[in-house]
């Protein structure tokens, strides 16, 4: 989940585009966030850079969790192959 500001959160894998709003606001103030599920953009109160950084962290954490799950499953499979005599 990525925080878009003012209590708005969105799934990072559903965000498909970011466009900074610069008209009368200055750079790095607000961003239009385009998602795969809505026809119109969500106005975020955060800069596109801040949103991108949060998306990168979320993806990295998800990757590590999946890798840990694979390792644990491999360990459990390996433990089941140990003969009972050696388990004692």
What is the secondary structure topology, with strand pairs?
Layout: E1 2-5, E2 8-10, E3 15-21, E4 30-35, E5 42-44, H1 48-80, H2 84-87
Antiparallel strand pairs: 1-2, 3-4, 4-5
Structure commentary:
The protein has helices at residues 48-80, 84-87; strands spanning 2-5, 8-10, 15-21, 30-35, 42-44. It is α+β, with helices and mostly antiparallel strands and 88 residues long. The chain has one domain. It has a three-stranded antiparallel sheet, with no helix packed on it. A two-stranded antiparallel ribbon has the order 1-2. A hairpin with a 6-residue loop joins strand 4 (30-35) and strand 5. The longest helix has 33 residues, at 48-80. The chain starts with a strand and ends with a helix.
Helix content: 40-55%
Distance between the termini: 45 Å
Q: How many distinct helices?
A: 2
**Biggest sheet, open or closed, and with what strands and sense?**
3 strands, antiparallel
Give the radius of gyration.
21 Å
Which structural class should the secondary elements be placed in? Answer: alpha+beta
The chain-level mean pLDDT equals: 82
How many domains, as an integer? 1
What's this entry about, in short?
The protein is an alpha+beta fold.
Which descriptors would you attach to this protein?
88 residues, alpha+beta, three-stranded antiparallel sheet, 2 helices, 5 strands, 42% helix
């Amino acid at each position: 989940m990525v925080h878009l500001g003012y209590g708005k959160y969105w799934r990072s894998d559903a965000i498909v585009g970011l466009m900074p709003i610069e008209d009368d606001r200055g750079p790095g103030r607000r961003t239009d966030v385009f998602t795969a599920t809505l026809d119109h953009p969500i106005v975020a109160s955060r800069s596109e850079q801040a949103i991108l950084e949060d998306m990168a962290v979320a993806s990295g954490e998800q990757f590590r969790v999946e890798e840990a799950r694979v390792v644990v499953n491999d360990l459990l499979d390996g433990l089941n192959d140990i003969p009972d005599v050696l388990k004692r």
